[in-house]
Design brief:
The chain is an alpha/beta fold and 666 residues long. It starts with 9 loop residues before the first strand and ends with a helix.
Length: 666
């Protein structure tokens, strides 16, 4: 498919974009003190160089009590303008247009950060902080309109080509739009007209102050996905009202941060909410941006050709690969580093007060420090182990000009990554595996698979540097019954070698245990593509198909800790738990397995012992570092390193980061 539509120009008011790729606003945590710092500027400069048509920066809070988190961007004072101007100049020089999102967090603000009680449309507690906000008075609402207008003025003075009003995701403006959080009985509440009044006044005030020709974008949620919130029918009306008020572009998003419907987790299918954009596009004449889980240029082109929307919004996809637009435009689709929606570095980072990072792209937020430069003295480097850490190290070393030999014991590349993504809800991991394999095969790397690296074989190659990336191995715990025929390891299950029967008990609730649980539960359900076929051809009605899709085998996770998936961050763990619960997986925490018997497992809990009936038992615990070769090579090669799980058990992201940093410094 040729990407003609994606790379055609488009007009936003009087602003012309070179293509239809919009980098959506996101909180990064790079703006120390609210300023556009050098790392902040470099981050966006790289995305502008990468070829996106429009970069929406922010949100930038328009008042200190409206900030959303640690080191978020600010535009509430003129002192921020000089650094913002450096940002817009960098973006413009790199060939893109810029837009600043204006934000007030409302009830999502934290008093521990602002020193003030949060404010909102009404006194409805925030589930993020547990705090009850103070309802704004009518006079304060008028003042707030002025604050948004002042922020827009500063944005234009700083050189931004447009501004965006954040009216989505559960922040202040959307708190007025939604009946869930707007319980007011005055002119700013009650009817849809009343609830929309605040947003309309902000748009009109900005247009009056800056001129009708200055583009105003509005970010709006299709559906709040909170009980009693705004749904699609009201959103249609809101979109039309905003267009009448002067909005030049509608940036459509879905769900609030407290929504129970997953909107950004890996289990969400790509472009799952695109159909909603088509509904809004029918109601308005201004262009519409479609967002949420669109990381594939071919899918983006298809959505544009089908008339679903006018522009494609990407956020995490451009964190993972800032060069995505350029690579897509020049036909290098296989070279695009894919966003896998793991949320480990980006959304988890924000919610934990850390700067945004990325599993797939270790350079995100560290662009200056992680530039890839030619090696000062190219040499021969052996990388032992072709898991994610080993392949990332080999990739970077080859780009720097080293002679690289990549050795893998198994016949296929990927290490533990080959086991990830087996469950349908975790399939995006396979796209990362394909990317890394493509890269090490594309570059000038000698690859030896099915090769056991030993001390003699390594030394025979006379390497200048050896990197041990052999990962981890599973040592079964000393548990009575582990040798029984119905007991399997995680690897045997995920490779399809296990005979899964009946009720499944999984010992260990870490990330591998969750992966196995999702896979085992889905093995009992009708695949979605089969259900779709049967419904379309009248073999099943939709309710019957849904029942078959939900039919799963009984699966129980047994975990000694108090939490399942304890090492996941807040948002990624939320997605994992949603997937497990939707599949009916039973979660037993604070529980130790003490014996495996023929009919089940014997469990020890705080209140005593009990037996859980099980026909299949899977042990997913007991992983240990596989670093023996490192010890045997110590003192025998000129330079020796060990990375990833071979050094210390850690997350996939940490392993890839270790590899990326080491390879840049050899």
């Amino acid at each position: 498919m040729k990407l003609k539509r994606l790379f055609s120009g488009v007009q936003i008011g009087n602003l012309e974009l070179k293509n239809r790729i919009v980098m959506l606003s996101m909180q990064l945590g790079y703006a120390e003190g609210g300023f556009a710092t050098p790392p902040f500027i470099r981050f966006y400069e790289e995305r502008a160089k990468g070829g996106a048509g429009l970069l929406i920066v922010g949100g930038a809070h328009i008042h200190p009590h409206g900030t959303g988190g640690v080191n978020f961007l600010a535009v509430d004072d003129d002192r921020y303008i000089p650094d913002l101007r450096k940002l817009t100049e960098a973006i413009r020089t790199a060939g893109a247009k810029s837009c600043l999102q204006l934000l007030h967090s409302g009830r999502y603000a934290f008093s521990i950060l602002t020193g003030e009680q949060p404010v909102s449309a009404s006194e409805v507690a925030s589930p993020l902080s547990g705090e009850v906000p103070r309802a704004l008075s009518v006079e304060e609402i008028k003042d707030m309109v002025g604050l948004f207008t002042d922020g827009a003025r500063r944005a234009r003075e700083a050189g931004f080509d447009a501004v965006e009003i954040c009216g989505s995701t559960g922040y202040l403006v959307s708190q007025f739009l939604s009946p869930f959080t707007n319980r007011r009985t005055d002119a700013y509440g009650g009817s849809l007209e009343g609830r929309t009044r605040f947003a309309v006044e902000i748009v009109r005030s900005i247009k009056q102050a800056l001129g009708e020709d200055y583009p105003v974008v509005f970010r709006l949620s299709f559906d709040d996905y909170v009980e009693g919130g705004t749904g699609l029918d009201e959103t249609r009306s809101i979109a039309g009202t905003l267009e009448e008020a002067g909005v030049d572009l509608l940036d459509m998003q879905v769900g609030w941060h407290e929504a129970k419907v997953p909107t950004s987790a890996m289990l969400v299918p790509r472009a799952a909410f695109a159909y909603l954009a088509a509904e809004i596009r029918k109601e308005v004449a201004v262009p519409v941006v479609v967002t949420n889980r669109i990381n594939d240029p071919l899918l983006a082109e298809e959505l544009l050709q089908d008339g679903v929307a006018d522009l494609i919004g990407m956020a995490r996809a451009l964190i993972a690969d800032p060069e995505l637009p350029n690579k897509a435009r020049t036909g290098r689709l296989d070279e695009i580093a894919p966003c896998i929606a793991c949320n480990q570095g980006c959304m988890d980072g924000v919610f934990m007060g850390r700067p945004v990072s990325c599993l797939v792209n270790p350079a995100a937020g560290r662009e200056a420090r992680f530039e890839i430069h030619p090696a000062k003295k190219p040499g021969k480097v052996m990388v032992i182990g072709a898991g994610p850490a080993g392949m990332e190290a080999a990739r970077v070393l080859a780009l720097r000009g080293h002679e690289v030999i990549l050795v893998e014991r198994e016949e296929e590349l990927g290490g533990q990554l080959t086991l990830c993504g087996t469950a349908r809800d975790r399939a995006e991991f396979k796209s990362l595996l394909r990317y890394l394999i493509h890269e090490v095969r594309r570059l000038d790397i000698r690859i030896l698979t099915g090769t056991e690296a030993g001390e003699e074989s390594v030394l025979a190659h006379r390497p200048d540097v050896v990197i041990i990336a052999t990962g981890a191995r599973q040592d079964l715990p000393e548990l009575p019954g582990t040798g029984k025929p119905h007991v399997y390891t995680a690897a045997s299950v995920l490779r399809g070698e296990a005979d899964l029967r009946g009720r499944v008990a999984i010992i260990g609730g870490g990330h591998i245990g969750c992966e196995v649980a999702l896979y085992a539960a889905q093995r009992g359900a009708m695949p979605p593509d089969v259900a779709r076929f049967l419904v379309l051809h009248g073999a099943l009605d939709p309710e019957q198909a849904l029942a078959y899709m939900r039919r799963t085998r009984p699966v129980t996770i047994i975990e000694q800790r108090k939490k399942i998936a304890a090492y996941y961050g807040r948002t990624s763990r939320f997605g994992i738990l949603q997937g497990l619960r939707s599949r009916g997986v039973t979660l037993m925490t604070g529980t130790k397995c003490v014996e495996i018997c023929d009919g089940g497992v014997v469990l020890e809990k705080a209140n005593g012992r009990e037996t859980l009936e099980a026909d299949t038992v899977v042990i997913t615990s007991g992983y240990v570092e596989e670093g023996a070769l490192y010890k045997r090579l110590e003192g025998k090669v000129a330079e020796l390193h060990i990375i990833g799980d071979a050094k210390k058990l850690k997350s996939c992201q940490q392993a890839v980061w270790d590899a990326a940093e080491l390879a840049r410094n050899i």
